[in-house]
Design a protein that fits this description.
424 residues; mainly alpha; Growth Hormone, Chain: A
Length: 424
């Protein structure tokens, strides 16, 4: 199969990326994947909350969903650099489809047979496939569009992910209130089947890099060592761990805040979950139109700070409308955080290490998120949900300050390394 031709450079950066048919296809794949994933998370989270009435067990959804990441992410980055990225994506989607089909079969046969451990197992498998496919999909985007349009392509990728994040919970909440759990989950299965058919048509250009067949352990050691010697990557990964441990777990508890603090049902909880996506979609759309970004780190840091402030205000909002607006503004910050997180990780690494660096990024996300979800759920159960969230968010803000002072994330523009600079 011949590599795709590079996207035309005429017109706006956004149009030049969208003119690439291969990018459009992988963009749709990402959109449907995130749509189904977010809908499934809402359906299963609402199920656990209604059945157990436990903040701790609600937090376990987040824990099990991210538990595979620390174990698989570094290896998945290695796989993305060494093996067929298209095949990795397809196998991951097959596993997702079969997992949803099994849970749906239990629901359809006898809903009473469905236990929380079934839910936790399904969520764990979903997290495992996401950890495996993320580095392959992100580096495949770079293969398709090239370095010159990477920020624009990743902004569009954030747009597609955000569209799924926005529409998935909203439609999931409506379906839960109208047709119940089984039919809602059946809709999730249909989306997975459509996405699987699209993945069979994916075309990803073969990388021209010469890959050395070094042992897996040494390969992982090289990537970790490189990150430790890069002040930019070190600061980015540190902030990534903080945000995923202390701030982003709040998203898992939005159903509980909606039900117990704001007094709304599944439909309005789904709309509340979509609010963040609305702001994130607007922010990502704006960034996709930018021509040249020099200070990637500033966008990343200020996006993080915006999420922190809006989250702290959200948990104490007494009104649904205000809570919705605060989450929407938080989404603007998340757009900057998400886009520049991936862009900095790949642009600050040499070409032959980008897959492994994306795996290392996923590892840091996976380390922080389960710990944060477990701790936040336990503290919320022992004390109050608002108190647990507020304490975590304030701690995240304080712990972020050293990275702003000691690393060049906000003080200097990003300098891209020459090829083959990996060292150990």
């Amino acid at each position: 199969m011949l590599p795709s031709q590079p996207a035309p450079r005429r017109g706006t950066p956004l149009l030049s990326v969208l003119q690439n048919a291969d990018f459009r296809l992988i963009w749709w794949v990402g959109t449907l994947h995130e749509f189904a994933r977010r809908m499934e998370l809402l359906i299963l989270s609402w199920l656990v909350l209604q059945v157990t009435d436990s903040y701790f067990q609600l937090g376990l959804i987040l824990v099990f969903n991210n538990l595979p990441r620390p174990f698989l992410s570094l290896v998945s980055g290695f796989l993305a650099d060494r093996f067929n990225r298209r095949l990795i994506l397809q196998i991951s989607q097959v596993v997702n489809t079969l997992t949803v089909a099994c849970i749906l079969a239990i629901m359809a046969y006898d809903f009473e047979l469905l236990k929380t451990w079934h839910v936790f197992l399904a969520i764990t498998l979903q997290g495992a496939t996401k950890a495996i496919e993320d580095p392959s999909r992100r580096t495949a985007i770079l293969d398709i569009v090239g370095e010159g349009r990477l920020v624009n392509a990743l902004s569009l990728d954030v747009v597609s992910n955000t569209a799924g994040k926005m529409v998935g919970p909203l439609l999931g909440g409506v379906l839960l209130d109208t047709v119940g759990f089984a039919w809602s989950y059946g809709f999730v299965l249909s989306v997975h089947l459509v996405n699987l058919s699209l993945m069979m048509r994916l075309r990803i250009p073969s990388s021209e890099l010469t890959r050395q067949h070094e042992p897996v352990v040494r390969s992982l050691a090289v990537s970790i060592n490189y990150a430790l010697h890069s002040p930019v990557l070190k600061g980015l990964l540190y902030i990534t761990i903080l945000m995923n441990a202390l701030v982003f777990p709040v998203q898992q508890f939005i159903p509980a805040i909606g039900r117990d603090h704001l007094g709304v049902g599944a439909t309005l909880v789904g709309l509340l979950l979509a609010a963040e996506g609305i702001g994130q979609l607007a922010g990502a759309a704006l960034m996709s139109l930018t021509r040249n970004v020099r200070y990637h780190g500033r966008v990343f840091v200020f996006g993080s700070l915006g999420v922190i402030v809006m989250t702290l205000l959200f948990v104490w909002s007494p009104w649904y409308t205000l809570a919705f607006a605060l989450l929407a503004v938080s989404g603007l910050g998340q757009a900057g955080f998400s886009t520049m997180q991936s862009a900095i990780t790949m642009l600050a690494a040499p070409p032959d290490m980008r897959g492994r660096m994306m795996g290392l990024l996923s590892f840091c996300i996976g380390v922080g998120t389960p710990l944060g979800g477990l701790e936040m759920g336990a503290v919320a159960t022992a004390f109050t949900l608002q108190g647990a969230i507020s304490g975590n968010v304030v701690a995240g803000l304080i712990l972020m300050l050293p990275a702003l002072v000691l690393t060049p994330l906000i003080s200097r523009p990003l300098a891209q390394p020459p090829p083959a600079t990996a060292r150990i």
